[in-house]
TrEMBL record:
Presence of keyword Transport: yes
Record key words, sorted: Cell membrane, Membrane, Transmembrane, Transmembrane helix, Transport
Compartments where located: Cell membrane
Region span, Disordered: 1-22
Cell membrane in keyword set: yes
Membrane topology per record: Multi-pass membrane protein
Similarity field: Belongs to the binding-protein-dependent transport system permease family.
TM regions (residue ranges): 31-53, 91-111, 123-144, 321-342, 363-385, 425-446
Protein name: Sugar ABC transporter permease
UniProt cross-references to Pfam families, sorted A to Z: BPD_transp_1 (PF00528), CarboxypepD_reg (PF13620)
Main location: membrane
Domain ABC transmembrane type-1, chain residue ranges per copy: 87-445
Species of the source: Streptomyces prasinosporus
Length: 454
């Protein structure tokens, strides 16, 4: 009887979850979830899926979009020398930029841990990330300018060069035609008439603005009037131009200035036997010369154009220069991500290595880097994806004449489609190629991210 009462008092068994009510609840949950996800799916379809499908379809038609050409655009893509150069430059970007950024980020992240003002240092390095690629491109276009008065890099290069080698004082100077000086193939000037010991010579030049004369330049009239001894040759190098007009060409007038610092050589039988430099009044003198005729030569170094720095945006250096701008922007990003991974490393392993006698280099190479390998891989792959799509910096920094030498797939796609080529079929094929190159890196990154969550 007791068992009967217990059985009667027990609650009724719940409905089976697989029943009609359970199916209704599950269906209702799926509908609600779909309603929440629907806006995101619509945006994803409109902004990602549709453009990808449209680009794939458009790549199968000609420039007009009316004639079906199948894989013709893809064949043409790899026949075009400019496209092949874009593929080569993209490969350079993929190999160089992510590796340098990951290495710099790792080094800076490790060093910042030992800096007292670490937060301020990280802020300074990360600040370029707040600058748009457009603004960064303009900044570096100015920094790389060939004119030292505009480009800060060439201004520094010129300052260092001139500090060690100097430059010519008269890059624009030249001799008057028919006034006794003949220009050589190497840019030097040689006297047409021979000069013997005891003789003098007046070597007039033009093309130098009076305002460009050295501050210590003096009148040349007195120097031209001096006579030479029996075993010496005297002369003067002067500016054959009288301020305000007047004067006689080929004659040292009273108001004409000497040209100081000009190198003069005495040449005999094609060989330089003596060399000197003009004084403040332009005078020069050779002593101890043997008898016989000599020619006087003004070497081309007197008229060499001034050093103007490095052609950063020339065909040879434009791609490394743009990569340098990219490093300036993204180094802070790599450092912060790697620094975050560095802060999670087990400190007991590092301390145990120090207690065992390992130095800091051994700890870095054998412990820190292996433990940071997953973080370094994610940073590297993320940067690979990013550099494959680089467009702004290349388009803005590279001048028009070298745009083709710096082009990458993204810029080539734009130039072919909208920048004058007007061939959106070929441009779409380039876009599909770029997508195919990016997808494996994205899949790898997603798998690494899912693996780290497990």
């Amino acid at each position: 009887m007791t068992a009967t009462l217990v059985k009667e008092a027990s609650p009724p068994a719940p409905a089976h979850p697989g029943g009609a009510r359970g199916r209704r609840l599950r269906r209702r949950g799926r509908v609600i979830a779909l309603l929440f996800v629907l806006p995101a799916l619509l945006l994803l379809g409109a902004l990602v899926v549709y453009p990808v499908l449209f680009s794939v379809g458009r790549s199968l038609f000609d420039a007009s979009g009316n004639e079906f050409v199948g894989g013709g655009n893809y064949v043409e893509m790899f026949r075009d020398p400019t496209t092949l150069k874009a593929v080569r430059n993209t490969a350079i970007w993929v190999v160089v930029a992510p590796a340098l950024l990951t290495g710099l980020g790792l080094i800076l992240a490790v060093l910042v841990e030992k800096v007292r003002w670490a937060t301020a240092f990280k802020l300074l390095l990360f600040m370029p990330m707040a600058v748009s690629f457009l603004a960064a491109g303009i900044i570096f276009r100015l920094a790389y300018d060939q004119d030292p008065d505009k480009g800060v890099l060439n201004a520094a290069a010129v300052a260092v060069h001139d500090a060690f080698e100097g430059s010519s004082s008269y890059p624009t100077a030249r001799a008057r035609e028919g006034e006794g000086l003949t220009r050589g193939a190497d840019g030097s000037y040689v006297t047409g008439a021979d000069v013997r010991p005891g003789g003098t010579a007046a070597l007039g030049l033009v093309g130098v603005a009076p305002k460009d004369l050295p501050g210590d330049a003096g009148p040349a009239r007195a120097a031209a009037a001096r006579t030479a001894g029996p075993d010496e040759v005297r002369g003067v190098v002067y500016l054959d131009f009288t301020p305000g007009g007047g004067g006689e060409p080929g004659v040292v007038d009273r108001r004409e200035s000497g040209l100081p610092g000009v190198e003069v050589e005495a040449v005999r039988d094609g060989r330089t036997v003596a060399s000197t430099t003009t004084a403040a009044d332009g005078s020069f003198r050779f002593t101890g010369l043997d008898g016989g005729p000599y020619a006087l030569r003004l070497p081309s170094s007197n008229f060499a154009p001034p050093y103007e720095g490095v052609s950063w945006l020339g065909p040879a250096l434009v791609t490394p220069a743009i990569i340098g701008a990219y490093l300036w922007i993204w180094t802070g990003f790599a450092m912060v991500l790697i620094g975050a991974g560095l802060s999670t490393l087990p400190r007991d392993a590092l301390e145990a290595a120090r207690m065992d006698g390992a130095n800091e280099w051994q700890i870095f190479r054998r412990i820190t880097v292996p433990l940071l390998a997953p973080v370094l891989t994610v940073v590297f792959v993320t940067l690979v994806i990013n550099v494959m799509k680089v467009f702004d910096l290349v388009y803005i920094i590279a001048p028009g004449p070298v745009q083709e030498d710096a082009t990458v797939l993204a810029t080539q796609m734009w130039l072919v489609s909208f920048g004058g080529g007007n061939d959106q079929g070929l441009g779409s094929a380039l876009g599909v190629l770029l997508l195919l190159l990016v997808v494996p890196a994205m899949v790898f990154n997603v798998r690494r991210f899912k693996g780290s969550q497990r």
